[in-house]
Amino acid sequence: IDTSREGLPEGVRRLLDLAAAVPEKKDARKEAVREPLLVQVGRASMDVARHAGGLVTFLGESTIALGNFFVGKAKFR
Q1: How many whole angstroms separate alpha carbon 14 and alpha carbon 17?
Q2: Using an 8 Å Cβ cutoff, are 73 and 66 in contact?
Q3: Calpha distance 40→62 (Å, rounded)
Q4: Has residue 35 been placed in a domain?
């Protein structure tokens, strides 16, 4: 990318020159390693199992609260 450094302060120009003076490493970037499909499915299953208890608790408490609301025994805070 071509840029113009005319309006930049001297310190910024020196910093850009210093950054450009370092050669780029060819192997500096890591390739993204994709996990096998079975590992992805296993991790997703473990996440579902880990969060299922909280979901069931939330749904149960919500159902009880809604039932109490319709019966007229709801507790408001």
Answers
A1: 5
A2: no
A3: 32
A4: no
Residue 31 lies in a domain: no
Residue 72 lies in a domain: yes
Residue 5 near residue 13, CB atoms below 8 Å = yes
Q: What are phi and psi for residue 6, nearest 5 degrees?
A: -60, -45
Q: How confident is the model over 16-74, as pLDDT tens digits?
A: 889 888 887 777 777 778 899 999 999 999 999 999 999 999 999 999 999 999 998 87
Domain count, the chain: 1
What are the DSSP calls for 4-66, one per residue? --TTS-HHHHHHHHHHHHSPPPTT-SPPPPPPPHHHHHHHHHHHHHHHHHHHHHHHHHHHHHH
Residue 16 domain flag: no
